[in-house]
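SAMPLE LOG
Freezer: B-3
Tube label: C17
Construct: single chain, 410 aa
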Amino acid sequence: MEQRNWLQRLFGRFLGRRTGLTQVKVMAGYTPIFTPWGERPYEADVVRAAVDAIARNAAKLKAKHIRRVNGEVIHVKNSDIERVLSLRPNPKMSAYDLLYKLVTTLMMDNNAWAYPVWESGRLVAVYPVNCVSAELLEDSAGTLYVKFYFMEGGTATLPYSDVIHLRRHYYNNDLLGEPNSPINATLSAIHTTNEGLAQAVKTSAALRGILKFQGMLKESDIEAQRERFVKEYLTVSNSGGIAALDAKAEYIPLNTEPRMINAAQMRELRDAVFRYFGVNENIVMGNYTEDQWNAFYESTIEPLAVQMSLEFTSKLFSSREIGHGNEIVFEANRLQYASVRTKLELVQLVDRGIMTPNQLAEVFNLPPVPGGDIPIRRLDTRPVDETDDLEDLEAVEGGGDNATTETQGG
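STRUCTURE (predicted):
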């Protein structure tokens, strides 16, 4: 009942069945239905470590509302959209939580959905859509809809133009990302290896052998002698680890050495999962160099930032607003991850107007200073079109002919 009430509050009139819709016909012949990755792969430690490394870094991206006007980029301050996306997208989540959940869902299912909520033309919330499957439909006019199926049995059919949709491994299906089935064999091998390792530990810790008796004994006597041997010598109380037998019985040990995968093979299986998701051990462990971080950002995080910027812009602005240069961009201060030496080299960029004092302070994780958002520039630099001022300055600094003549005449 609580789930149903939550769906009613969020989707309202979109709940339930919508008539007159048919399944979308895609060119490649694939069924336009999305279902999450089965077999609970997120329970595998290597998968969760890889996905978490991507999600926790992508979640640090900052949403910014900008407007491009006559070749200039203007930061739109006091923007309702930026406030929602950068602070509290919905009552249950911070901006970090929303991006973390969207990116995690995208990595696990290769499709991630979010639903923006509007009131009186203003964006008031953005919710990630947690569904067990989704189906792409269309009406007689060719308008796209997405039908979400929820765990509690409810459904909601929304116009596709109203839903934020992120895709990964976008190939055969015209509308949806491909499933993660290529990695299933590797995960199965890792699971089997982990189980074999646990069993090998149990096997190596047990005493295995045959108790051979002299003469012919009844089945009941053999069973009684075996139980007695196990009770007296194969228990924790036998701390000495030595068994004593008389001439009536002989213990013959069975030396079983379980075969285990070696460290190199185990590392290769783990690295195969890391490669699939676009991370490596250093990124997962947080033990990366400046160059390694830059490579990870450019190959894994930046594509996510570009995709989210384009999709959020398309779904949160009208065509007219986009035509006037409005965009949502997701940015990261990559310089915060630079080495101290690189950061110190950036100081010289401040007095050349490339960075503001507050931008440099952010690189060093320092608080902003009053007036620090105003670019500053050294006085011995000029725009190239200010030729008269530049020639006068060069004459004074270089001791030109006029200056020499006046000195001699004096």
